[in-house]
User: Which sequence fits this backbone?
């Protein structure tokens, strides 16, 4: 049982530096991921390219790292944890973009597209 506990501790240390998983979930996943989700939806709503989400996610990753530093005494200039925070923002941004784009393609081009799950669309058969 101690090997499982040690493994869980090592995995936790890889993703977050705080002593509490709740702080990581609140700041990185809920705040950072939520902001990235909204940014992805905004990029899709204005018909901008998917590559802009990468830029916005890097900015949001820096903001999340600052919140960890300012409120929870985390390390500000940590490349490792910045990469983790930015990856979470990037994944949330891509999901937000994809859900919004799928809704756009089905709603605005309903004569040619049909929904195909929450993240996709398909061409209607003639």
Assistant:
């Amino acid at each position: 049982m101690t090997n499982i506990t040690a493994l869980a501790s090592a995995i936790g240390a890889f993703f977050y530096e705080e002593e509490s998983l709740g702080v990581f979930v609140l700041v990185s996943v809920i705040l950072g991921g939520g902001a990235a989700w909204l940014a992805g939806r905004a990029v899709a709503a204005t018909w901008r390219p998917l590559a802009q989400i990468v830029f916005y996610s890097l900015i949001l990753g820096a903001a999340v790292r600052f919140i960890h530093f300012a409120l929870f005494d985390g390390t500000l200039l940590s490349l490792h944890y910045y990469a983790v925070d930015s990856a979470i923002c990037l994944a949330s941004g891509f999901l937000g973009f994809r859900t919004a784009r799928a809704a756009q393609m089905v709603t605005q081009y309903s004569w040619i597209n049909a929904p195909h799950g929450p993240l996709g669309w398909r061409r209607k058969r003639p």
